[in-house]
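## retry 2 of 3
previous attempt timed out at serialization; input unchanged, resubmitting
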Amino acid sequence: FPSHDNTEEKVSGIIERGCSFEGNLSFSGILRIAGEFTGKIFTNDTLVLSDEAIVNADIYAGVVIISGKFKGTVKATSRVEIKRPAKFEGSIISPSLLVEEGVIFKGETKVDDIRQ
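## retry succeeded, writing output
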């Protein structure tokens, strides 16, 4: 499965294109979402939303990498990366934020250490 972030080898779980999930999700390792997700996601590790992802959620994670469509809130203890062709609508609190040129971003950010 093609991805911009080269995490394929280490992915511990996938919600693939054509799948949809609604509810609370917690995991360890790396989870890649290429399908649809609505709810809350909790992890100390890495969440990857690939180009095809459509996610409406509150996310609490270590690292969040977004390339798909996202609406909601992200609280990351390490970093957030928003990559083309992402469409982001919501809010982010993270000590580190990267937004690539070409991303559609509607929202607010607070660069802050949330581990306090």
